[in-house]
Specification:
This protein has 13 helices and 47 strands. With 821 residues, the chain is an alpha+beta fold. It folds into five domains: 155 residues, Galactose-binding domain-like (Jelly Rolls); 109 residues, Immunoglobulins (Immunoglobulin-like, Sandwich), CATH 2.60.40; 258 residues, Alpha-Beta Barrel (TIM Barrel); 101 residues, Immunoglobulins (Immunoglobulin-like), CATH 2.60.40; 107 residues, Immunoglobulin-like. The termini are close together. InterPro entries: Beta-gal/glucu_dom_sf, Beta-mannosidase-like_N2, DUF4982, Galactose-bd-like_sf, GH, GH2_Domain-Containing, Glyco_hydro2_dom5, Glyco_hydro_2. This is Glycoside hydrolase family 2 TIM barrel-domain containing protein.
């Protein structure tokens, strides 16, 4: 089928009661370009009992119902063809009307769905489509709202290849050749039997044809048929995270009159194997998953899913040392899957955060019993050709899994996935404590007895308490069946089970599907030690909107004797990401990279001197309150603590050339040490030693002199292709280019030329500023602007700030590839 972008020409507004509108209470539509997040531009306010507020879970954005409309022309020559509208994601409870008639719906906000549109259309005329979406107390994190992923119009004949109808697998691979099985689903909506020729070619990355096949298929009216072909590629380049070689397949349908339809798909040739001794193997080599959990939002863009935003996130995560992503807790976008394929990032794609038991007032559990199969089918259909996908997760922290009924649901979902795709493995992110929540009192007593600790001690350390509960006999017994239906036992915060389960369940293969960032050193040691533990996914790789403040540092004071889990308004972010929402790596990221064995240089992080000596209390998701900076005006000669991360034997710290001595570091000291000193502006240097010899050094310098404004684009040229963006990093520095982390101020931007502002903001975890504003404050010396091209030409961004010379950035925009295929 011909595929054309359907993203342009939309309008949106908050939904208006039609009776109120008849009385004159109108709300005008505003023009937008899809992907679009209708929630991110709403004004946030502190909770005041308003039913529309989503609270801290939703970052204090108001929920609501939003309507979209679009007028589009359908040519007369399309009469008699099949026209399908494809929505990659609408959050949530989407309903679609075409020319006033109900055309379809989708309750789940993360599933791709199709609308058979031709029966509702007026050919040779303008048509109107309306989409409603609603978001209201239905999630534990920020979801966004509206048509937040790409939309497409598909046009084909009565006989055609079905949407997503080409599925490629590589069932047999050896040193000399690979079997490539291509299954092509053909539909026939005519009244006649159609016999068609199917010609298939496999191409390597250079476009060279490396295998071909031809066959014939007879398709009865209204009865789809599948042409299954086996092609043989000699000496293929295999796909792996370190060498993500891609192939493509093209399928052409013809009859005696010529071309009928064609379709193509990208895939990778790779094998998967799994056993408790060698763990996960890709192409015969064992691979440990260095995993990042992430949410779907794109920071300052809200939930809007642009291909460039997804690609940028994947590349930054890969550069930070991760080789795997767990999309938490919903199916991943097609754009991110494409990026993972190209860049070489393994994927655990997750179906649901809830089944039949609600976690929020009006969440998907209300629709799950009726829709779960269709949503599993949509996820697998989306993922099937992507070599990056190695595991499907059927859920996250589902309370039911500790009951017989929940175990039955686990089996039902797992078998459904296997029926659709037997080539990959099935997991489930099980939290032992939540699985036995109904027996919480007994569970706590058992955990206390097992650990020889009192309840007060356990609850004072939530990480240890959750682990102790997860390792209890009660959890062992209640989760046994739900774990048994899986290929891989996904464990959230249960690393205490890793060693014991090797004996209790010798065939159990474990994946740390969610773990505390502060425990990565111990967790990774277990991953390396045990073959049956295949990886670790830290919470979380990239910071996100909502679940506000779970990673914020808190200090015990007389006014704050009992810190809270969630933060009050105007907190915006969770604050627990290795990487902040602008893509800047935080100290925790460099620590994790060191633990992974991927970094030899020491890393310096400085605890904020204003809190020196104050007792720190944080959740297990929080890192230390540090900044990689030696610029602390107003704290000259004040006491300060410097953290150093390294895998060396010891590190030496020098302040302006004066040595503070050496301290042990490395694995036996949790890869970190601290120096208690005073702040003296100048240069801070860490030198790492192994066996007495220097192995690396790093330095921080104080920013001095007048503050300068800088702006740098991630790429000088972008295109008009669907989903392309330009990212411009704005920073405050001294004349030598040292980031001035203590000179924050308002920054204003102006966009002219062939582009528009898509988002502007910083990584400030607590702010009432909006991402669609043209003036924002920097945070720790940085801000980020994202621009969307509107045509071929140039985009000019002018940036200004008080007491700084303004700067300009120009980005060229060239024509992108055609959107039709």
């Amino acid at each position: 089928m011909i595929r054309v972008s359907f993203n342009d020409g939309w309008q949106t507004r908050p939904k208006v009661n039609p009776f109120a509108e008849m009385s004159g209470a109108t709300v005008p539509f505003q023009p937008v370009t899809v992907p679009h997040d209708a929630m991110i531009g709403q004004e946030r306010t502190a909770p005041s009992g308003r039913t529309g507020m989503e609270g801290g879970a939703g970052a204090y954005f108001p929920g609501g119902t939003f309507e979209y409309r679009k007028t589009f022309h359908v040519p007369e020559e399309y009469r008699g063809k099949r026209i399908v509208l494809e929505f990659e994601g609408v959050y949530r409870d989407a309903t679609v009307h075409i020319n006033g008639d109900y055309a379809g719906q989708r309750p789940f906000g993360y599933s791709q769905f199709h609308i058979d549109a031709d029966r509702f259309l007026r050919f040779g005329q303008d048509n109107e489509i309306k989409v409603e979406a609603r978001s209201h107390r239905d999630s534990r994190w920020y979801t966004g709202a509206g048509i937040y992923r790409d939309t497409w119009m598909l046009v084909g004949g009565l006989a055609r290849i079905a949407p997503q109808g080409v599925r490629v697998s590589t069932p047999d691979i050896d040193g000399e050749q690979a079997v490539v099985e291509v299954a092509t689903r053909v539909e026939n909506d005519s009244i006649a039997i159609r016999t068609l020729d199917v010609a298939t070619e496999v191409h390597d990355a250079a476009g060279t044809v490396v295998a071909t096949d031809a066959s014939r298929i007879t398709v009865l009216p209204g009865e789809p048929a599948t042409a299954r072909q086996r092609l043989y590629v000699q000496n293929p380049l295999l796909w792996s995270p370190d060498a993500p070689a891609l192939h493509s397949v093209s399928v052409a349908l013809t009859d005696q009159d010529g071309a009928v339809d064609n379709e193509s798909a990208t895939f990778g040739i790779r094998s998967l194997q799994l056993d408790p001794r060698r763990g996960l193997r890709i192409n015969g080599a064992s691979v440990k998953l260095r995993g990042a959990c992430i949410h779907h939002d794109n920071g300052i863009l809200g939930a809007a899913t642009f291909a460039r935003a997804e690609e940028r996130r994947v590349q930054i995560l890969k550069d930070a040392g991760f080789n795997a992503i767990r999309m938490s807790h919903n199916p991943m976008s097609k754009a991110m899957l494409d990026a993972c394929d190209r860049i070489g990032m393994l994927v655990v794609d997750e179906a649901f955060d809830m089944w039949t038991s609600a976690k929020s007032d009006f969440d998907y559990s209300l629709s799950f019993p009726e829709w779960w199969e269709r949503d599993i089918e949509a996820m697998v259909a989306k993922d099937f050709n992507h070599p990056s996908v190695v595991l499907y997760s059927i859920g996250n922290e589902i309370p039911e899994v500790g009951s017989p009924s929940g175990a039955a649901w686990s089996r039902r979902l797992a078998e459904k996935v296997r029926t659709l795709d037997p080539s990959r493995y099935v997991t489930n992110g099980i939290n032992g404590m939540l699985a036995v929540m109904s027996d919480l009192a007994a569970m706590r007593q058992q955990a206390a007895a097992d650990e020889g600790a009192g309840i007060n001690t356990l609850m004072a350390d939530p990480a240890a308490g959750m682990n102790a509960i997860g390792a209890s006999e009660l959890v062992t017994r209640r989760t046994a069946e739900s774990f048994a239906v899986l290929d891989v036992a996904g464990m959230n915060y249960m690393e205490a089970r890793y060693a014991a389960d090797r004996e209790l369940f010798p065939n159990r293969i474990i994946l740390g599907t969610e773990t505390f960032p502060t425990r990565i050193d111990g967790n990774w040691k277990l991953v390396k030690q045990y073959g049956h533990v295949i990886g670790d996914f830290g919470w979380t790789g990239w910071d996100y909107l909502g679940e506000v403040g779970i990673g914020r540092p808190q200090y015990l004071t007389p006014d704050n004797p009992r810190p809270a889990f969630s933060a009050p308004y105007p907190y915006l972010l969770a604050g627990c990401g290795d990487i902040d929402i602008t893509g800047h790596r935080r100290p925790a990221s460099y620590y994790r990279e060191t633990v992974f064995g991927l970094r030899t240089q020491p890393y310096l992080a400085v605890q904020r001197p204003e809190h020196y000596g104050q007792p720190l209390w944080s959740t297990p998701w929080a890192w230390s309150d540090t900044v990689s900076s030696w610029t602390w005006p107003g704290f000259e000669d004040a006491p300060v603590v410097v953290e150093v991360y390294s895998d060396a034997d010891e590190v030496e710290l020098l302040v302006n050339g004066r040595s503070l001595g050496r301290r042990p570091v490395g694995e036996n000291h949790r890869f970190r040490t601290e120096f208690d000193t005073v702040h003296q502006p100048g240069e801070l240097v860490a030198v790492a030693y192994r066996d007495g010899a220097e192995t690396g050094r790093s330095a921080l310098r104080s920013a001095t002199g007048p503050v300068q404004l800088r702006a740098e684009a991630d790429r000088p040229t972008i295109t008009t292709a669907v989903g392309d963006l330009a990212y411009i990093t704005i920073s405050l520095t001294d004349p030598d280019g040292t980031l001035h982390t203590a000179a924050d101020r308002p920054v204003s931007i102006t966009v002219t030329g062939d582009g528009a502002l898509a988002g502007f903001g910083s990584a400030n975890p607590s702010t009432d500023e909006q991402f669609d504003a043209t003036e924002r404050h920097t945070y720790l010396g940085r801000a980020l602007a994202v621009l969307r091209p509107t045509g071929v030409g140039e985009i000019r961004l002018t940036v200004g700030a008080p007491d700084c010379e303004p700067v300009d950035v120009t980005i060229s925009v060239t024509a992108g590839p055609a959107t039709a295929t």
